[in-house]
Amino acid sequence: MGMKSDIKLIDDNGLRIDGRLPNQLRPIKMEVGVVKRADGSAFIEWGGNKIIAAVYGPREAYPKHVQESDRAIVRARYNMAAFSVDERKRPGPDRRSVELSKVISEALTSAIFVEKFPRTAIDVYIEVLQADAGTRVAGITVASLALADAGIPMRDLVVGCAAGKVDGVVVLDLNKEEDNFGEADVPMAIMPRTGDIALLQMDGDLTYEELTNAMEMAMDAAKEIYQLEIKTLKGKYGGDNNDD
Amino acid sequence: MTTKFSEGVVAESKRSYIHKLAKEGMRIDGRDFDETRPIKITTGFIKRADGSALVELGDTKVLVGVKIEPGEPFPDTPNLGIMTTNVELVPLASPTFEPGPPSEEAIELARVVDRGIRESHTIDMEKLVIEEGEKVWVVFIDMHILDYHGNLFDACGIAALAALNDATVPAERFGFGEDFKLPVVHYPVPVTFAKIGEWIVADPNLDEESIASARLTVTTNEEGKINAMQKGLFGTFSYDEVKKVINRSLSIGKKVRSIILGGENGEEN
Amino acid sequence: MEEEKKVRDVVVPGEEIVVDGKPGRGVFIENGVMHSMYLGIVDVRSGYVNVIPLSGCYIPKRGDKVIGKIVDLAPMNWVVDINAPYYAPLHVNDVPWRVEFGDTGRFLGLGDVILAKVSNVNEMGQVWITLKEQGLRKLEGGHLIHISPSKVPRVIGKGGSMIQMLKDSTNCRIYVGQNGTIWISGTPDGIVKVIKAIRMIEREAHTYGLTDRVKEFLERGDE
To answer: Disulfide engineering: A120 pairs with which of A20, A58, C58, C199, CB 3.0-4.6 Å?
Structure first.
């Protein structure tokens, strides 16, 4: 965010460098059941992002001192492959991935009936294989699919989506150039049924009006992504495919 | 992973008491929902640092030291200075803090404070170039928690801004001309809210923090712009709640900023 | 009738359920409206609306027969993995043998497989199992496979019809644990056929007309 550049991110027709309208999502494809060994899994392609998620558990949490006596703990681990970005990323957790793992764990916990499994852990591994901005919101979306696929009881599916500002225009779902050279990014995760906001971060420079515009844009798009999640999950069991 | 902000199992009686009070518009320490605890700022507390501030937010106490040294710029920003932030949750500050590598709580805290300062362009980084592409000033912001009684996000954010505002670039010491004041050009202030039942209170104390279902920090600057947000904990906020919290943070942030810049309640040495 | 609707209603977590009936298992009520907890299928039985998960771990219930594996020994008990979130202890008082203190290893060793019954479950999720009942025992030899516990009723079939059909057409001995672990013993050909049939049931558990298709598969396989 905030790097100076001469690149024009919005052209004279109001289109973005990848040809999208301000409120248009990148193409999204989802698939569930991609890791046989796991209790649940999913894969997402979102623009240039390719992210896989697998769920193990609930299983007894170890080491024992991490157990909670009245609920399951949800341990999401967000990890970027060394080859997922242009300049090789040093493998292993850095400060960014530790923070993202924490906020993703918290956001997923709010959707799960954790009280049904005292003393257990639900492990959610999110591997970013190819990164193209918006990995945390794509990661939380694919994790939510993997949780449903693992038979974890939940209040709702979780949908991640981001909006931001580039060249003074509020836009949905920033791509890599927009993320690098734009003015603000607002990643969110939403439970579409209730509209509850489970993850909310922001950085950049926005007025109150721009910020609320961005949030509303992300929440609207979340409904679209939610339909795709439902279709993907039901599609695995051969149902609800009215349009193919 | 062992250091936790929460104090483990909370007595049920405490939980229901705080809820009962909230229902009547009251808080356990007598504050209004939008009232922060008293803020006391002592700048220049560490003479060996290039800038420092000891901040007391109620009983929560944090010390921020700023060190400034020459270093190499990042390859993609040859004409900009560099800043880094770090938090130490030292065990002396709370029975729940343990020694060891930074916990995820400490990392999140450091990164939220970092975002507030970085994204608001608090420091004019272009003025921190010694030789373009070769040498720039690196600003190290180290935060030490000395007494933990809730809401480290705001205490650290306030202390970091106060310490930066207090800092001098030690050019002479390194043979690069005369010392000059660190160019601070914006004043971002974080305000953190805790959701307790259906009520949302500003600057939660330790008891409130330990029973909160969700947390939201909003960092705003002197122009009324929003520079950073961070939601935490397992609970959720509705969109209406978020909008109200942003508006409240704008007005609370304004008051806190005037304290940092030496207005009422502020004590400067 | 089955031709008209091949797939049962699949619901996703949080989805509203618009079926008349009292809330049963796998559902929750919010603002007076019933929602599914699981990715599963809606099943109405005796006036109760249930959602049966399409996947997920085994949640032990008292009285369930389960197949488990010994994963640890202690002087007075064995620790058994029954494919649930928690391991289950098997106490020396709950086996049909007289076991001296510290002599557990002589009766059941690491990796041994048993057919046991869940004797108690508490709200903390702790589980106790027993071998003290007729038919419960150590399972020698044979082969083990796992399926999703939610699909066990389909493998067993109405009144045991599906499992009986598998046994009859392959001459295999088969035990199906409620925890999704299945023990099969017989000729190699027979075992392969049973596994193929079970995988088919697993894949198509949510469809109608399954018994006929499995029957067809078993007959075709005979040729």
So the answer is: A58
How far is the C-alpha of B105 from the C-alpha of B88, rounded, in Å? Answer: 10
pLDDT tens digits, residue range C146-175? 898 888 998 999 899 999 999 999 999 999
User: In chain A, what residues touch B8 (CB-CB under 8 Å)?
Assistant: none
Distances (CA, A) of A225 to A137, A145, A162, A222, C204: 11, 12, 12, 5, 27
Look at the block and give the residue holding tokens 């599963």: C40
CATH class, domain C65-139, is mainly beta
Domain A28-235 top-level CATH class: alpha beta
C 94-113 residues with CB < 8 A to A? none
Specify the 3-state DSSP secondary structure of C46.
coil
Cα dist from C70 to A11, C80, C136, C138, whole Å: 67, 5, 15, 10
Minimal CA–CA distance to A141: which of A201, A224, A239? A224
To test the contact with chain A by mutation, choose from C16, C25, C31, C39 the residue with the greatest count of A C-beta atoms within 10 A, namely C39
Question: What is the CATH superfamily name and number for domain C143-220?
Answer: K Homology domain, type 1 (3.30.1370.10)
| Residue burial C24-56, b: 16+ Cβ < 10 Å; e: rest | bbbbbeeeeebbbbbbbbbbeeeeebbbbbbbb
What CATH code is carried by the domain that includes residue B54? 3.30.230.70
**Whole-number Cα distances in Å, C7 to C147, C154, C203, C207, C223:** 20, 14, 12, 5, 30
With the CA atoms of B197, B203, B207 and B211 taken in that order, what torsion angle do they form, in degrees rounded to the nearest 10? 30
**Model confidence, pTM:** 0.82
For residue C116, the SS3 value is strand
- Looking up tokens 């420091």 gives B123
Q: What is the ipTM of this complex?
A: 0.91
| Whether C7 and A237 lie within 8 Å, measured CB to CB | yes
User: Is domain C2-53 given the CATH code 2.40.50.100 in the classification?
Assistant: yes
- pLDDT, one tens digit per residue, over B19-77 is 888 888 889 888 999 999 999 999 998 888 899 999 999 989 899 999 999 999 999 99
Residue numbers in A near B1 (CB within 8 A): 66
DSSP A32-76: E---TTSSEEEEEEETTEEEEEEEEEEEE-SSGGG-BTTB-EEEE
**How close B177 gets to chain A, by Cα (Å)?**
28
